[in-house]
Amino acid sequence: MSRADLVVVANRLPVDRVEGPDGEPSWRRSPGGLVTALEQVMQNLDGAWVGWGGKADLEVDPFEFDGNLLVPVKLSPADLQDYYEGFSNGTIWPLYHDVIAAPVYKRSWWDAYVRVNRRFAEAAAEVANEGGVVWVQDYQLQLVPKFLRELRPDVTIGYFHHIPFPAYALFAQLPWRKQVLEGLLGADVVGFQRLADAGNFQRSIRRLLSYPTKSDTVQVPDGEGETRLVIAKHYPISIDAEQFIALSKDPAIIARAKALREQVGTDTLLLGVDRLDYTKGIRHRLKAHSELLADGRLTASAATLVQVASPSRPGVEAYQDLRDEIEKTVARTNGDYSSVEYTAIRYLHQGFPREEMVALYLAADVMLVTALRDGMNLVAKEYVAVRADNTGVLVLSEFAGAADELGSALLVNPHDIDGTKDTIMRAINMPKAEQARRMKTMRKKVMDHDVEKWGRSFLADVDALRKERADKAEADNA
Ligand code: G6P
Per the similarity annotation, which family is this (predicted)? Predict the structure, then answer.
């Protein structure tokens, strides 16, 4: 098998397997956020990507796609149940998102997580070039850095954590907390979204492992009386702003946005775009919105809420319960407040291509991002990027990582329903001049700090450590 100087390891491959009308399978680039973010970074690098092909028991040889080598990792139905739905999305996901849903601690899930993380590490070890770089992505693979270091001490390892890292008092609940920290510390660079995430990580290390930390670094004992320096700091992820701006100028997409507006027919279009996840605060948003209708501050003929909730993790019980609850609320609100002509909430439990999302962003006067906890939230950045005429208002949860950079949004605490209601009304009634002032500041931020810059700054730190190690090895040999 050919090898690569840069290997990305993520739970999912950046492609989905689709079957044509003739039953022939082929691969299509998948629309997810992580993929979009890394697509840019990988484009010119001739790299490899190790990940799961999206279906149980799929056995496929490594193959070329868009100039990169894709290396599928096989997951059995039991792996998916215990490693993916279980430990990743039934334990770590809720624990790291401030226990919005109750995490479940099951020893059999942990065993599967260890087993599958080892498998990903082995696949990466096989494909990385001598002295190359391996970049591990996200919470499903926190043990990969340590396993990989054991297999391939010659490679330099980066790990980026796309979701929040919780406060010590929460992280401490995890029965395998020390193993997870040691797993992550197998990396040379551990990256987080927010300054606070990196702080939480360092605090957990001091409390649980007693390793010294200083500004952005941790001193990890190597077992032979020496220490190894690990960088642990924040690198806020972003979007391919240029690509979104280009789409927003596409005449077909502009025409689509106009047609959507005309069909909706209200003065104001409010928009929510989320994976159907309990972290996104969709319930809180719907509550605020339905109370505004009940209070008579909004009417269905004056404003429509378009809520895109793309299907997510349907095998996990908390997601099934959330879906039931949201769909009941939408039906109730529409039953109570829609008319024959106007629909209060247009709810779409579907995923859409990027072009349609941009048309929706262009059509929306107010974008509602009310996550209860979110690593970053790229939807907020996408909305801002396409609003080239500096109109539109972003209502943004202070609990989303994006709030650190987009302070000119209308920031809300989504738990405060009255505050959220007032903020939605303020957004709807905001004068054009204020909209422009806020949007301009936010657009500058997103354009100056796009995903390419994110990837470059992370990989620059990895590369600096790689060079340092190479120089040291040379000096030791001299
Ligand atoms: C979040 C996570 C990603 C994950 C994505 C979709 O953005 O940070 O790691 O891939 O959600 O979730 P899924 O479980 O469908 O991969």
Answer: Belongs to the glycosyltransferase 20 family.
Question: Which long-range contacts does 457-462 make (Cβ < 8 Å, 24+ apart)?
Answer: 457/235, 458/135, 458/158, 458/160, 458/189, 458/191, 458/235, 459/6, 459/41, 459/133, 459/135, 459/158, 461/158, 461/189, 461/231, 461/233, 462/133, 462/135, 462/156, 462/158, 462/188, 462/189
Q: Residue 120 corresponds to which amino acid? A: F
Q: Is the CB of 31 under 6 A from ligand 1?
A: no
113 vs 10, 54, 55, 141, 242, CA distance in Å?
14, 17, 18, 8, 38
Tell me the per-residue pLDDT of 160-184, one tens digit each, with 9 for 90 and over: 999 999 999 999 999 999 999 999 9
Which helix (H) or strand (E) covers residue 345, if one does?
Answer: strand 345-348
Q: Ligand 1 centre from 223 Cα, in Å?
A: 35
* Per-residue CA distances from 472 to 63, 65, 465, 466 (Å): 36, 37, 10, 10
pLDDT tens digits, one per residue of 9-25: 999 999 988 888 898 88
Burial label, 201 (beta-carbon count in 10 A; 0-12, 13-18, 19+): buried
381 lines ligand 1 (CB under 6 A): no
Signed CA dihedral, 320, 415, 236, 217: sign only: negative
To 10 degrees, what angle do helices 107-127 and 144-151 make? 40
Domains of the chain (ranges; CATH) run 4-237+453-470 (3.40.50.2000), 241-448 (3.40.50.2000)
pTM for this predicted structure: 0.97
Q: What is the pLDDT, as a whole number, of residue 474?
A: 87
Q: What is the DSSP letter of 144?
A: H
Strands 4-12 and 128-137: parallel
Q: Which of 82, 138, 161, 162 is catalytic?
A: 162
Closest CA to 80 of 97, 57, 103, 96: 57
Query: 64 by DSSP, 3-state: which?
Result: strand
pLDDT tens-digit series, residues 205-218: 999 999 999 999 99
466 CB near ligand 1 (under 6 Å): no
Place of tokens 């952005």: 216
Distance from C-alpha of 316 to C-alpha of 92, rounded to nearest angstrom: 13
CA atoms within 13 A on the CB side of 289: 33
For residue 93, report the distance from its CA to the centre of ligand 1, in Å.
Answer: 10
Query: Hunting for tokens 């996901």 — which residue is that?
Result: 93
